[in-house]
Amino acid sequence: MKKVFLKAPSRVQLFKEMAPEIPLPPQPVLTRWRTWLSAVFYYAANFKKIQEIISCFEEEESTAVKIVHEIMQKESLLCDL
C-alpha cells in the first residue's frame, strides 16, 4: 500500500477528496511491532472506504496499484484483519 501513494500526488489528492476524515494509510516499519499493529487497526477500521478508493485507481497506472487492487479483491482479507 505504501508504494501506491509514494510519489503519487494525484492519488493522495483523490484519497483526501474521497475520505477527508481518514488520514493516509500508515507506513509500518519492518522492525517495529507497534507500527504493524497500528496499521492493522487502521485497515480494519477503514477497510470498506479504502477498498472503494483503491478501486477508483486505474490498474495500468503502476504495478503497485495493480497488486494492491488484486489483494483488496480477496474476500478473506477483511476476515484476516
Task: Describe the 3D structure.
The chain is mainly alpha-helical. The chain has one domain (2-23, 45-80). Helix content is 65%, strand content 0%. The protein contains 5 helices and no strands. The chain has helices at 2-5, 9-18, 33-56, 63-72, 76-80. The longest helix is centred in the middle third of the chain and has 24 residues, at 33-56. The chain starts with a helix and ends with a helix. The model has no long low-confidence stretch (mean pLDDT 85).
The N- to C-terminal Cα distance equals: 15 Å
- Measured as a percent range, the helix fraction is 55-70%
Question: Treating each run of at least 4 consecutive H or I residues as one helix, how many helices?
Answer: 5
The unreliable regions are none
Return the domain count: 1
Shape: globular
Structure, briefly:
With 81 residues, the chain is mainly alpha-helical. The chain has one domain (2-23, 45-80). It has helices at 2-5, 9-18, 33-56, 63-72, 76-80.
Topology, pairings included?
Layout: H1 2-5, H2 9-18, H3 33-56, H4 63-72, H5 76-80
Please give a handful of descriptors for the protein shown.
81 residues, 0% strand, mainly alpha, single chain
